[in-house]
């Protein structure tokens, strides 16, 4: 079995988010980047498949050279090879198109991508990728077993779980549940040393015009002071909720 | 104990000076400390017990002999990586860092630097994997700052050496499988010997009732007519310079480690000051608290620069003993002062085990004393710049 885990390079969840002076771009100064958590759950699940059932595991990303530390970490965790498509991932369509090219040429049986990245939360790439490749697709996946070319996937649905049977080749939009947070791997020294020798291939992007363009960013308005309303004055509460908070 | 919310201060963007691998090694150690050390360490410290369960994890993150070549089980990393690992471990606890420092710099380093090829192959891989733990015997009850005055001796008995004497304040001694022991031969020359647990006449009683490094095991080494095989003598170097060479490596690790303890105290105090409200506003808005916090981050930043430059010199093989003394002395003193100030920011909460600050403060009282006291390191700088030793 050959598995590809798609990795997005995202700001650490504790990062303070700022934009450039003209509010047209995210300011990366002082920001630490990590493997997108939804992708990391998938990477760990893929490691289990590799270790228990025998599989070749590749990781791929779309990004500039700045994302290589994140890919090197994935290699240190245990991926066999990494692929970086050398381009700024401008939008979901662009990213999916680039990854589709890697999948087409790579002979993969299973592709695991996070159901969304925690930076822009687009949640489009796995679905678009499945459509471009015409592969089976399970999104919001919280459980995955592979037996030969059969796959059993568990999907989170409103108020419960849904179990599906499908076949490889398959694309998974993964999230927490594929493995738990305590299962996530910290690279050990042997892994870090082995990662030095592993291949990180840089590929040119497929030429395409991005379908969308970011024009402006805006932070949420800062929280105002708490207003205390006397329990006997419900009219004032309703007035505030209606006119100020616009909640009712 | 509160959840570990640590965020590393990097006021001068020092991360820009680190390589991709430095950051990978540092972040792995940091993640491991958050996962394996922070949740348990307060409980072990309160009970004055060493957490044996973390030995395998320490080995996994490369804390045992990171700069020892790969052929002997080490990771073959550079000195800055070693420093960063020590920083992250001491961010968790100085006692845990002490265990790693001793194993790396005081046990593996002398076997690597002064041992035979056979000794390296026999001992280093098991020490790197944590399968065997070691300790280092230099200090004696009557010889601390003056190790050259040691009275532990060994005599050549033909097919073995006969070792007699005692060592005190030995980190890891109660559970160590082997000890690198410094003793004088019949001519009064200091040599290193590997003494293994189980040798007749060798015992390691534990030192109890410490108020510092409570999560680290400290003890004595007692040698009562111990027969040490001749092949256990480290032949590569003798004289006081041999153990002092090991101390250079350990002190270098401490210079980095102390930054970790200081960063943890600062980060805790900063978070607390922003959350704790008095007189209707966060205490971080008061000038006296800002002075404390601003001075802390300034001192941490200076210490980080000192350690980084020293790491570059170590990588080039150019760091002198006196340069290492300066960094050890400055950075531990810095950390201890920050621990005390941070404790005050937390008020009464600072004395509880809910926060790590008081544990760091008590630990650092040992760190400022061991591996060359604060005063001795000052005199090493004094001797270096004047050419006149004040203590010999």
From TrEMBL, chain A:
GO terms for molecular function: electron transfer activity. CDD domains: ETF_beta. Gene3D superfamilies: HUPs. It holds the Pfam family ETF. Residues 23-212 form the Electron transfer flavoprotein alpha/beta-subunit N-terminal domain. InterPro entries: ETF_a/b_N, ETF_b, ETF_beta_N, Rossmann-like_a/b/a_fold. Keywords: Electron transport, Transport. Residues 205-226 are annotated as: Disordered. The keyword Ribosomal protein does not apply. Residues 210-226 have a biased composition (Basic and acidic residues). PANTHER family: ELECTRON TRANSFER FLAVOPROTEIN BETA-SUBUNIT (PTHR21294), ELECTRON TRANSFER FLAVOPROTEIN SUBUNIT BETA (PTHR21294:SF8). Belongs to the ETF beta-subunit/FixA family. This is Electron transfer flavoprotein subunit beta. The lineage of its organism: Bacteria, Pseudomonadati, Bacteroidota, Flavobacteriia, Flavobacteriales.
TrEMBL record, chain B:
GO terms for biological process: fatty acid beta-oxidation using acyl-CoA dehydrogenase; fatty-acyl-CoA biosynthetic process. Residues 238-383 form the Acyl-CoA dehydrogenase/oxidase C-terminal domain. Its EC number is 1.3.8.6. Residues 19-131 form the Acyl-CoA dehydrogenase/oxidase N-terminal domain. Keywords: FAD, Flavoprotein, Oxidoreductase, Transit peptide. Pathway: Amino-acid metabolism; tryptophan metabolism; Amino-acid metabolism; lysine degradation. Residues 135-226 form the Acyl-CoA oxidase/dehydrogenase middle domain. It is an enzyme of class 1 (oxidoreductase). One of its GO terms (molecular function) is fatty-acyl-CoA binding. Belongs to the acyl-CoA dehydrogenase family. PANTHER family: GLUTARYL-COA DEHYDROGENASE, MITOCHONDRIAL. This is glutaryl-CoA dehydrogenase (ETF). It comes from Robiginitalea myxolifaciens. The lineage of its organism: Bacteria, Pseudomonadati, Bacteroidota, Flavobacteriia, Flavobacteriales.
